[in-house]
Write a structure and sequence with these properties.
Layout: E1 11-15, H1 20-31, E2 35-40, H2 45-53, E3 58-62, H3 71-82, E4 87-90, H4 105-133, E5 136-141, H5 154-174, E6 179-186, H6 195-199, H7 201-210, H8 223-230, E7 241-244
Length: 251
């Protein structure tokens, strides 16, 4: 294992790759040698430019993962354009905020469908191919709310708790078939999804006071964790949820 983190010759699919965490992970995988299919509702042109600048091939796949309709197309297009599929990063997700007593069925279904249902069926579609080739890496994006309850985000908490359980279930079924399934649980990362929290002076202070690192995370902080879980260095890591949280859970 001379270069255990080398992803040269590998092909990765990253959902929600146009901004934030997805963009950072896609670029980190490319920097480690992978070619990348960037999936999202809007074209990930900025991400693609960064990947091309690294000398890697990139394919942009438009797909709205609020339904499972495009799931097989994502896999088929990746195989047609890049020739194989070795790594899947399920990053695409949404959040809706309201007190539990006021939360609507519409907001419940929208978050569960995107954050959990589409994640499972994309794992399934990619997993079938990976099992057939005898190898693969699936990395789901969990959350601090995979471990905790949070407030005012009932469907998000439910979806991310489900992602944690699904990660372990798939690891149990697929580890012996050469496919590792793990998750990354980001802490408080400065992205569009957390803009409301950053703008709330009291909540922002409470969050920062609890983080031992003393700062919000940056999307780039997650790149190394993704490369590790996608690489041969993590060949015996199965069903693990890796917190990248500045020490939040240790507090």
């Amino acid at each position: 294992m001379a270069h255990p983190f080398d992803l040269a010759g590998k092909v990765a699919v990253v959902t929600g790759a146009n901004t934030g965490i997805g963009q950072a992970i896609a670029v980190a995988l490319a920097a480690a040698g992978a070619e990348v299919a960037c999936v999202g509702r809007t074209p990930a042109e900025e991400t693609a430019e960064q990947i091309r600048a690294l000398g890697r091939r990139v394919v942009l796949i438009p797909a709205d993962l609020s339904t499972i309709a495009p799931v097989q197309q994502v896999v088929d297009t990746t195989l047609a354009e890049l020739g194989r599929l070795d790594i899947l990063v399920n990053n695409a997700g949404i959040i809706r905020r309201a007190d539990a007593v006021d939360f609507t069925e519409e907001d419940w279904d929208a978050v569960i469908d995107t954050n959990l249902k589409s994640v499972f069926f994309l794992c399934q579609a990619a997993g079938r191919y990976m099992i057939g080739q005898g190898s693969g890496r699936i990395i789901n994006i969990a959350s601090m709310l995979t471990f905790q309850g949070g407030i005012c985000v009932p469907s998000y908490t439910a979806s991310k708790s489900g992602v944690g359980g699904l990660t372990k279930l798939l690891a149990n079924e697929w580890a012996a078939k050469g496919v590792t399934v793990n998750a990354i649980a980001p802490g408080y990362i400065a992205t569009n999804n957390t803009a409301a929290l950053q703008a709330d002076e009291s909540r922002n202070k409470a969050i920062l006071d609890r983080i031992p690192a003393g700062r919000w995370g940056n999307p780039a902080d997650l790149g190394g964790a993704a490369v590790f879980l996608a690489s041969d260095a993590a060949a015996y890591v199965n069903g693990h949820i890796l917190a990248v949280d500045g020490g939040w859970l240790a507090r």
